[in-house]
């Protein structure tokens, strides 16, 4: 979702009088809910069984009544392809994937090759080529996620409740990922948090995680406080943050650290320095797509014969692309990112 946001402004610049409608499922809607380039946001439900067929048929009829001139399938899945076809738009653009020939009037090349690495925004941007839109530029068209004022207020209240001063220098440490192929060991996150909290110019470390890993995040925080000893109070847990709250939290922070997962891309929509940990994926594909003046540092284990991979099976069996990343490497990157924006 985040990788599609540069396209929205590009479309409005190319067609300034156009009305832009965006279809999105509820879980990802916060990414674009306050985007001013979007004129209409359609939240798509995900019923199951026969209800899915009825729902999609009604949604297809609704789209056809919209009399759209252009439909872009930014997803490429079977459901998205069918809805694109159902829209009846005379120009329908999507990827040249198997089984999609009838869905689109224009198909653009698509490859699953991992090498050479290519940024995901560029894969999305290919869909704009048939519309006469030029090359992608991360300065002019960065990823975006406008802040939700209510989420900003909730985050401020939560940090106040945790005892953080209003001028606290915050580092957000996101300790979970969607799958084990992108998850750095918990004990190393704890060591890193303790190191950040005990630097000569320390920061307050706010530890976050996905909802399914809140217990693991709490264990990281507990271990980190023990390692930090008297400075352990600088390591805090403030509960779980939804997408809008996470964006507000990272915007307030001086640094974000995490693996190649959804929260990293939320962080990329801010001007907060990012240190990203890459296991089976490569930095050129997923580093923040934004102004290069804002520090974005990728840390990885270096060249490995099994890297990158499709993240189905760890051939060596030890997730060495992650376990070979040291705490010292990540801490050095954190300090470099902070220095780059004038933070001691």
Using the coordinates shown, work out and report the CATH topology of the largest domain: Rossmann fold
Largest sheet: 6 strands, parallel
Spatial order of the strands in the main sheet? 8-7-6-9-10-11
Uncertain segments of ≥5 residues (pLDDT<50)? none
| Helix fraction bin | 25-40%
Question: What gap, in angstroms, lies between the N and C termini?
Answer: 34 Å
Radius of gyration: 21 Å
Strand content: 5-15%
Name given to the CATH architecture of the largest domain: 3-Layer(aba) Sandwich
Q: pLDDT average, as an integer?
A: 94
Number of domains: 2
Shape: globular
Number of helices: 12
CATH superfamily of the largest domain: Glycogen Phosphorylase B
Query: Structural class, judged by helices and strands?
Result: alpha/beta
CATH class descriptor of the largest domain: Alpha Beta
- Helices and strands, in order, run as HEEHEHEEHHEHEHEHEHEHEHH
Let me know the number of strands. Answer: 11
Write a structural description:
With 344 residues, the protein is of the alpha/beta class. It folds into two domains: 2-131, Rossmann fold (3-Layer(aba) Sandwich), CATH 3.40.50; 149-340, 3-Layer(aba) Sandwich (Rossmann fold), CATH 3.40.50.2000. Helix content is 35%, strand content 14%. The protein is built from twelve helices and eleven strands. The protein has helices spanning 5-14, 50-65, 78-86, 120-125, 149-161, 186-197, 214-228, 243-252, 262-268, 283-286, 320-323, 327-340; strands at 21-25, 40-44, 70-72, 91-95, 106-108, 170-174, 204-208, 235-236, 255-259, 274-278, 296-300. Helix 5 packs across helix 8, helix 6 packs across helix 7 and helix 6 (186-197) crosses helix 12.
């Amino acid at each position: 979702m985040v990788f599609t946001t540069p396209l929205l402004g590009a479309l409005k610049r190319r067609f300034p009088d156009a009305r832009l409608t965006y279809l999105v499922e509820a879980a990802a809607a916060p990414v674009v809910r306050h985007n001013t380039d979007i004129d209409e946001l359609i939240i798509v439900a995900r019923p199951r069984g026969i209800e899915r067929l009825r729902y999609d048929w009604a949604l297809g009829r609704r789209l056809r009544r919209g009399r759209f001139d252009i439909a872009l399938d930014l997803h490429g899945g079977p459901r998205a392809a069918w809805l694109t076809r159902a829209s009846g738009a005379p120009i329908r653009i999507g990827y040249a994937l198997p089984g999609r020939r009838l869905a689109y009037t224009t198909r653009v090349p698509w490859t699953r090759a991992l090498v050479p690495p290519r940024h995901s925004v560029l894969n999305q941007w290919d869909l704009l080529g048939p519309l006469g839109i030029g090359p992608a530029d991360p300065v002019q068209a960065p990823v975006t996620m406008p802040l939700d004022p209510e989420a900003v207020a909730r985050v401020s209240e939560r940090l106040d409740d945790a005892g953080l001063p209003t001028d606290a220098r915050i580092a957000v440490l996101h300790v979970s990922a969607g799958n084990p192929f992108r998850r750095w060991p918990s004990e190393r996150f704890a060591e890193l948090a303790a190191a950040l909290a005990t630097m000569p110019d320390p920061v307050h470390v706010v530890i976050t995680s996905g909802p399914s890993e809140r217990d693991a995040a709490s264990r990281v925080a507990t271990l980190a406080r023990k390692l930090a000893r008297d400075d352990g109070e600088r390591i805090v847990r403030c509960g779980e943050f939804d997408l809008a709250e996470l964006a507000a939290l990272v915007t307030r922070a001086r640094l974000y650290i995490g693996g190649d997962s959804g929260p990293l891309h939320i962080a990329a929509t801010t001007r907060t320095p990012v240190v990203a940990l890459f296991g089976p994926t490569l930095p050129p594909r997923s580093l923040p797509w934004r102004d290069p003046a804002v520090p974005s540092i990728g840390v990885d284990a270096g060249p490995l014969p099994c890297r990158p991979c499709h993240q189905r099976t760890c051939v060596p069996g030890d997730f060495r692309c992650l376990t070979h990343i040291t705490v010292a490497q990540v801490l050095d990157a954190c300090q470099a990112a902070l220095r780059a924006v004038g933070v001691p």
